[in-house]
Specification:
5 strands; DUF2188; 1 helix; 5-stranded mixed sheet; DUF2188 domain-containing protein
C-alpha cells in the first residue's frame, strides 16, 4: 500500500509523488490527469491514499483507493 500526492509543480503542471520520494512519478498538464494517474498507481500498489494539493499549497482533498480501507469513512456521499 502506498500513498501518493498530487502537487503543483513550480515549473508548470502537476506532479504525482509517492510519499517520501524526492522525484515525481510523473508530470501532467492538468490536475485531473495527475489525479487519475495517482489513483491508478495507488490501485496497482495495493491501494492507499491520494492527497490532492490546491493552488494555494493546502491539501484540498484526500481519497482512499481500494483495496485499502478508509479508517474514517466520510459522511458525505460526493463519490
Amino acid at each position: 500500500m502506498s500513498n501518493y500526492y498530487v502537487v503543483n509543480n513550480p515549473d508548470g503542471g502537476w506532479d504525482v509523488k509517492t510519499e517520501g520520494a524526492e522525484r515525481s512519478s510523473g508530470c501532467f498538464d492538468t490536475q485531473a490527469e495527475a489525479e487519475m494517474e495517482a489513483k491508478r498507481l495507488a490501485g496497482n500498489s495495493g491501494g492507499g491514499e491520494v492527497r490532492i494539493q490546491g493552488l494555494d499549497g493546502q491539501f484540498r482533498d484526500s481519497d482512499t483507493v481500494p483495496p485499502a480501507v478508509d479508517p474514517f469513512p466520510p459522511q458525505d456521499k460526493k463519490f
